[in-house]
Design goal:
This protein has about 350 residues and is of the alpha+beta class. It contains 12 helices and 7 strands. Helices cover about 30% and strands about 10% of the residues. Strands 2-3-4 form a 3-stranded antiparallel sheet, with no helix packed on it. Strands 1-5 form a two-stranded antiparallel ribbon. A two-stranded antiparallel ribbon has the order 6-7.
């Protein structure tokens, strides 16, 4: 697991839009590496683990691994299969399809702005992108390849072997495969949305409907109680009354924390570029953003663990439409990172 200690290696060059990350392997400036990463307007500087600083070469390697189907047992599934750039870094299905057509019981969470997440997976069982990266590869329902086999496959490919030696000074290992993938995933950033430009002073950036929706988001609808801050998430877990009428509801965070109060609670996702990643919720049960708003408007599905922030909103049909407009129009990035599959070794 990656170090839990983080250091902010940032120097703002221009209006918070372009940030140069100066990352040192030690405190010696002579050993520092300088790399320019474009952090979109509205997002804070990225924090990197001290033991996994970014380089251009490491990002490129991680991108290759992210798109490489050879990391699945039958060479048919990659990270991008379930977290596709053209589908909001999710997969547009209720549940992802894995090895031999198997399906899990949860919707694929987006990778957008995962660089800022404090927890990963819907139940938060991974505390870093490095820890998360190998999970789907080894999962028998997803890519179904043991990490030992993954390492052996990568090291058997000369082009990968050469890159790992150059970047990490060794052949591929479980740890540095995870570090490479995590470093690439930290570049998948969405900001510079009409909302950000509106907040920066461009009062024409949002339509009148979107402006009304913004007021509702931060006011009557109380969306910002959980979808807060520049990444629009509180990084916490909540029971919002989704799927709680099932015969055996998903335990959610409780399976990890063993706390009774966490029953049916799931991680708050970002709502940046949310219009790209339907369907919604941990179980993919809501197909549209309007269905999402209507779910909250009725106060969710009543249950003994329902979060105190969930209650009937009494929104009018017009208010529902305005809130949807704000999320669709106001939070959609103008520079969406629709990454293409790179040439693989």
């Amino acid at each position: 697991m990656a170090s839990a200690t983080y250091r902010n290696f940032t120097r703002i060059l221009s209006s918070g839009i372009v940030i140069t990350l100066v990352v040192g392997f030690t405190v010696s400036l002579s050993q520092a590496e300088e790399q320019v990463i474009k952090v979109p307007l509205g997002l804070p500087p990225i924090e990197f683990p001290e033991d996994n600083p970014p380089t251009v070469e490491k990002i490129a390697l991680g991108k290759q691994l992210y798109f490489d189907k050879r990391l699945s047992r039958d060479n048919t599934i990659s990270c991008a299969s379930c977290h596709s750039p053209v589908k909001g870094y999710s997969n547009a299905d209720q549940f992802a399809t894995g090895f031999k057509g198997q399906k899990g019981g949860r919707n694929s969470p987006t990778v957008i702005n995962a660089a800022y997440n404090k927890f990963h997976f819907w139940d938060g069982r991974a505390g870093s992108l490095e820890e998360q990266a190998l999970g789907p590869i080894a999962n028998p329902i997803e890519m179904n390849l043991t990490t030992k086999e993954a390492v052996e496959r990568i090291n058997a490919i000369p082009g990968y072997k050469k890159q790992f030696q150059k970047i990490f000074g060794s052949d591929a290992t479980e740890e540095n495969i995870a570090k490479a993938i995590a470093t690439y995933e930290r570049t998948i950033l969405c900001g510079d949305a009409p909302y950000d430009r509106f907040k920066a002073g461009d009062k024409k950036a949002l339509s009148e409907s979107a402006q009304r929706g913004m007021q509702l988001f931060f006011g009557k609808a109380a969306c910002s109680s959980c979808h807060s801050g520049p990444t629009f998430t509180d990084h916490a877990f909540h029971n919002i009354g989704v799927g709680m009428d099932a015969k055996e509801p998903d335990a959610g965070r409780k399976a990890i924390s063993n706390l009774g109060g966490d029953h049916g609670s799931f991680k708050t996702p970002t709502v940046r570029d949310i219009a790209r990643s339907a369907p919604y919720m941990h179980d993919g049960s809501l197909k549209t953003l309007k269905e999402v708003v209507e779910h909250y408007n009725k106060g969710g599905i009543p249950n003994e663990f329902l979060d105190e922030e969930i209650f009937k909103l009494n929104l009018t049909p017009q208010e529902v439409d305005d809130l949807v407009t704000f999320m669709k129009e106001g939070l959609t990035s103008s520079n969406y990172p629709e990454h293409k599959e790179p040439e693989l070794p």
